[in-house]
Amino acid sequence: MYTMLIFAILGVFIAGLMIGRTPEYLGKKIEAFQMKMASVFILTTPLVVLFGTAVAVMTSAGKAGVSNPGPWFQ
User: Fold this and answer.
1) Alpha carbons within 13 A on the beta-carbon side of 14
2) Which helix (H) or strand (E) holds 24?
3) pLDDT by residue (tens digit) across 15-74?
4) 31 alpha carbon, distance to own chain's centre
5) pLDDT above 90: residue 1
6) Do the Cβ atoms of 13 and 23 come closer than 8 Å?
7) What is the dihedral sign for C-alpha 18, 34, 41, 2?
8) Across-strand partners of 29?
9) With contact defined as beta carbons under 8 Å apart, do 25 and 7 qualify?
10) Which of 16, 19, 34, 48 is the least buried, fewest Cβ under 10 Å from its Cβ?
11) Which H helix or E strand runs over 66?
12) pLDDT digits over 26-43, tens only?
C-alpha cells in the first residue's frame, strides 16, 4: 500500500513538472520534503537487495553455492 502511494506521489510530481503546474495530490501540494522522502523510499529497496546479496556472497555458504556444479554433474 505504501509503495503504491509513493509511486502515485512520484507520478503526480513528474506530471506536474511536465505541464508546468504545482503538483497536487488529493488537494495538497507536493513539496520538497515529500519528494525527498519518496526518493529515499524508492532507493531503499535496491539497496537492501544489494546489501543482502553482498552478505550472502561473503559467507561460506554463498561461496560454496557459486562453485556448485548442480545435479547434472554428479
Assistant:
1) 8
2) strand 24-25
3) 888 887 777 778 778 878 888 888 898 899 899 999 999 988 898 888 887 777 778 765
4) 20
5) no
6) yes
7) negative
8) 24
9) no
10) 19
11) helix 60-66
12) 877 887 888 888 889 889
